[in-house]
C-alpha cells in the first residue's frame, strides 16, 4: 500500500504540472461543467462523440492538484473508449473511491487509475478526485449541444 501511496504522490504532482488533454476542444459535441464547493474546484469538460465512441476529450478549469490530476488521468483513460466502457469505468472508479481505506483496491479493475485510491486517506479530498468523473457522466448523459456561456 505504501508503494501505491508514493506512486499516488508522484502521479498527482506530474499530472498537476503537465495536465494531459488540457484546453478547449473546438469540435466537441458535448460539454459539461463541474463544481466542487467543498474545495472550490471548477472543471469544464469537452467531449467529442463519434458514433458510440469517445473520439476526443479535453478539460479546462481551476482547482486543486487532485482535481486536476484526476481529470487528466480520466481523459487519458476514456479517450477512444465506447460510451458503455466509459460508464463502466465511472462505476469502477466510484467504487474504488468509496472503498474503506482498510480494504485493498483491485487494481485489475481500474488499471493505472488505481493511484487515485490514495486519496481515500484524505476523506475531504475524495470529492476532488471524483469531480471529473461526475462531470463526465453529466456530459455523456446530457444530449444537449455544447452550451456556450461566454
Ligand atoms: Zn480540490
Characterization of the model:
This protein has a single domain, classed as Alpha-Beta Complex (Sufe protein. Chain: A), CATH 3.90.1010.10. The protein is an alpha+beta fold and 150 residues long. The protein is built from 5 helices and 3 strands. The chain has a 3-stranded antiparallel β-sheet with strand order 1-2-3, covered by helices on one side. Strand 2 and strand 3 form a beta hairpin. The longest helix is centred in the first third of the chain and has 16 residues. Helix 2 packs across helix 5. The model has no long low-confidence stretch (mean pLDDT 90). Zinc ion (ZN) binds next to helix 2.
Descriptive terms for the model:
single chain, 150 residues, alpha+beta, Sufe protein. Chain: A, three-stranded antiparallel beta sheet, 5 helices, 18% strand, binds zinc ion
Pattern of helices and strands: HEEEHHHH
Please name the CATH topology: Sufe protein. Chain: A
Present as ligands are:
zinc ion
Question: Mean pLDDT across all residues, rounded?
Answer: 90
Any idea of the CATH class? Answer: Alpha Beta
List the total number of helices.
Answer: 5
Number of strands: 3
The order of strands across the largest sheet is 1-2-3
> DSSP strand (E) fraction?
15-25%
> Helicity level, as a percent range?
40-55%
Shape: globular
- Uncertain parts: none
Cα radius of gyration in angstroms:
15 Å
Q: How many structural domains are formed by the residues?
A: 1
Structural class: alpha+beta
Largest sheet: 3 strands, antiparallel
What is the CA-CA span between the terminal residues?
45 Å
For the record, the CATH architecture stands as Alpha-Beta Complex
